[in-house]
Amino acid sequence: KKCxxxxxxxxDEALPVEERQPACVMTCPTSARSFGDLDxxxxxxxxxxxxxxxxxSMPELGYNPVNxxxxxxxxxxxxxxRSSAPASLAHxxxxxxxxxxxR
Amino acid sequence: xxxxxxxxxxxxxSGAGFGLVMVTIVLDLLGGVPGLGATGTLVAAFTGVILATxxxxxxxxxxxxxxxxxxxxxxxxxxxxxxxxxxxxxxYPTMLLYMLGLWMTGGAAQSAWTALAGLLALVLAxxxxxxxxxxxxxxxxxxQWNSPLVPANYxxxxxxxxxxxxxxxxxxxxxxxxxxxxxxLVLLSAAAVLKAIYFFWIGKPQGPxxxxxxxxxxxxxxxxxxxxSSDSFLNKEFxxxxxxxxxxxLRLVVYLFGFIAPFVLIMxxxxxxxxxxxxxxxxxxxxxxxxxxxxxxxxxxxxxNLFYGRQSx
Lengths: 103, 313
Known about the structure:
The complex is a heterodimer. Chain A is mainly alpha-helical. Helix content of chain A is 32%, strand content 0%. Chain A is built from five helices and no strands. Chain A has helices spanning 7-10, 23-27, 44-51, 77-80, 89-100. The two termini of chain A are 35 Å apart. By secondary structure, chain B is mainly alpha-helical. In chain B, 67% of the residues lie in helices and 0% in strands. Chain B has ten helices and no strands. The longest helix of chain B has 29 residues, at 244-272. Chain B is globular, with a radius of gyration of 21 Å. Chain A binds chain B through residues 55, 57-63, 69, 71, 103, and chain B through 140-141, 208, 212-216, 224, 303.
């Protein structure tokens, strides 16, 4: 069966506003999905698509799909910030080994 | 795309049936089928209707839920399948009227209302075959099908197989089969050329690639893990892959059995008037057409395959 964007949830007046989203958006543990009105230029999703260069899949087919995909960003900030004290040699060696062993 | 045998049989049989009707009516409108009288023309028209009906009935075999099939008639504005169903159903009363006219008046040349009924039936038959081709050509997600060559192929193969079937009818009725046989030769040659153009066209790379599907257009991409441990409907239905060797063999079958052998046999029929060459030609032609339709499905690749490892479709 095709995805309906949980149409029964998004228009349900009995649900609180923050729960009027598709189930997949609410359940995603990494918050990888966002739901909103792309026709409204000030909505959260419109701003995400504009700022992060969201793209449609296979636009050359001319279907103009509504869902946009946000490209991956550079490495997360957490990795860029390093702790003030230098890590021990053993720790740095383990990190280097982990990065250099390919899939 | 997974070739469905019932759809293959359906399009070949209904194509031949509608084609036989088309050729018979056109020749009748132009003054009468050369080599056949009114009875013979009626037999030819009736054979066409039988073939088309066999095909249309066979098409119901590919439905998973046949009790909902009646709903197909109510989406005429947006669905080519619906248009095909409507045109096929409207074809029957006009064809019945034309055959009645053949029986009562002797042909389109003798009576205006027979000619009018014949013209209507002809238009509906052409529309039905065109709509069958457009069902496939309207899909932008299958690059090998998304072309005007597809309905052109359907129409031309339908006309060619119809003309060869009419040659059989004239030959078995022991009439002068030369004119109809020459028409069959011309249509077979045109169909062979168009088929060659189609094979050439699908050989070119076209359509989306894995880069446009995933959005990462800079650099090469390949699928490492598909994330599923067993096949799904998408894999089996859209991911059907025939080996290149099999495809090459079947293309040879299409040309040898479907075009070259019937051409040679019908030329021999014109020269020697051995009536039994015609049924042999039509048997070989239908074998070739079944192979052609199987290839039409097996060589088509849906863009969903880009998410299952293909680099391009």
